[in-house]
Each structure stands twice: as C-alpha cells, then as structure tokens.
Amino acid sequence: MGANFNLRLKDFEGPLDLIDTLVREKKLDIMNLDVAAVAQQYLGFVRNQINTISIDEAAEYLEMAIYLIALKSKKAIPLENNISNENSFEYERDKLVQRIIEYRKYKAVADFLTTKKENRIHQYAKFSNDVEDFRPENLSVEKLPEKIDLQKLWDALNSAFIKYRSSLFAKAKIFVQELSVNKIEDDLWDYLSTNKIKQITFSEYFATLDEMEISQQYLVTLFLAILDLVKYGKISIEQNENLEIVINNNELIKEIK
Q: What is the pLDDT of residues 87-113, one digit of tens each?
C-alpha cells in the first residue's frame, strides 16, 4: 500500500467512508470504478489497522472486505450465460457506486447541518421589545369606514393566503425586494385607471402581476395599499359570495353616473 495513507480506522465513520476516502485520494473515476484497485487498497488498509478498533467495529469493515473480495472475483471469473444479469459484476459494481454517491450526499448534508449548528451556538436569542415603548404619544389611529367589517377583511386576507400558498408561495425561488406601500398603491391605481376598470376582485388583480414579484410580503403590502386607497376615497371594497375582496373604482363609477 505504500506510504500514501497515514490514517487510522477510528477516523472513519464506517466502511463506506473509508472506501469514499480511498476513491477520492486515488482520484478514481467513480462512474467507471476500478473495483480491483479499491479492493486492494481497502484490504491492505484494514489488514494493517484492524487491531486499532473494537470487535463490533471490525465486523463492519470485515463484512465490506468480504463483499469487495466477492465482487473482485466476479470480474476475474466470467459468469455463464444462464446466470441472471442481477448477479453480474457490472450490476454489483453499479450498486456499490450508487451507495458511495448516496453516502456523499448524506455526508454533505450532515456537514452542512453541523456547520449550521456550530454557527447557531454563537448566536443569542433576544426577547422582542414591547412596541408600546416606541409608540409616539401623538400617534393618531385612523378608523376604517363604518361599512367595512374588520373581521371580514381579515377573513378575506386569510383566504387569499390559503389560495396562493400552494401555488405561488410554494415554488422554489429566492427573490429579494424592497416593498413600498406607495409604489404598490400607485401600480394598482394606474392599472384601474389606464384600463378603465370599474370593478375587479382581489384575486383577478393578483393574477395580472409578475409571478416573480409575488410573495407573502407583497400580498400584505398590497392589502395595506388597498386600505390606503379606501381612506382617500379613490376605491371602495366589499365582499362577494365567495368571500373575495371586490375593489370598486369610485372615480370611474362617478363618471358613469
């Protein structure tokens, strides 16, 4: 085996970890694995270091050694034509390669989670502040128009969350954006004015937006923008029989009348 490896078995997490290390250190092609070379390196390594571990651990390494010997023998001794392909050398080798690849994936995830754990150790949780401590004394709270039921508004917003969570929010995407109530308010009003829309539901307007812009934060900000337009009298809102928010363009309605 030479002096290429100066390691001990206790440094490995099992037989597959040792095989994976041998493949990487020898820079072997994993997709066209030289089983004979791996078996020779593995057996030599285990033979030299087997006395450094417990009997239980040794059993796992020896079981893999037997498997590699059997696999090496299949390559040296061709099978007869009537033998199933599932017992062929290529089939067994591919199974070993697949185990190594899967092991690498699990190890990569484990290393990632370990790093996250170590980083988390250095982080400290902070209790949230009471917002009342930061509330200005002269802050005025504007009430919604009497005809608007706050509970119904909440039900409508929650209904929108449920509707779009499974389709838009669940898609794998990372999109960082700065949201402004004024900007989204202007976009909504421009859409209503430019297209001469008298009435539109919340979901119908949502469907016209760029999918990459849609997020939970956008949905909440849009909801606040709608309330702002209601406050200024540009629009009015109600609920239909499907509990959807219906947006009425007050200025266009006045023109028609």
A: 677 888 888 888 888 888 888 888 888
Half-sphere exposure of 113 (CA within 13 A, CB side): 6
Q: Closest by alpha carbon to 229, among 200, 186, 195, 193?
A: 186
165 DSSP assignment? I
Q: What are the boundaries of each domain within the chain? A: 9-121, 181-254
Query: Reduced to 3 states, what is the DSSP secondary structure of residue 12?
Result: coil
The CATH number of the domain covering residues in 181-254: 1.10.10
Cα separations in angstroms, 144 against 79, 147, 148, 149, 185: 83, 8, 7, 8, 17
Do 102 and 83 meet the contact criterion of CB atoms below 8 Å apart? no
pTM for the model stands at 0.40
Task: Name, in order, each residue with C-beta under 8 angstroms of 221's C-beta and a sequence gap of 6 or more.
Answer: 179, 180, 181, 184
Q: Residue 177 half-sphere exposure, CB side, CA atoms within 13 Å?
A: 16
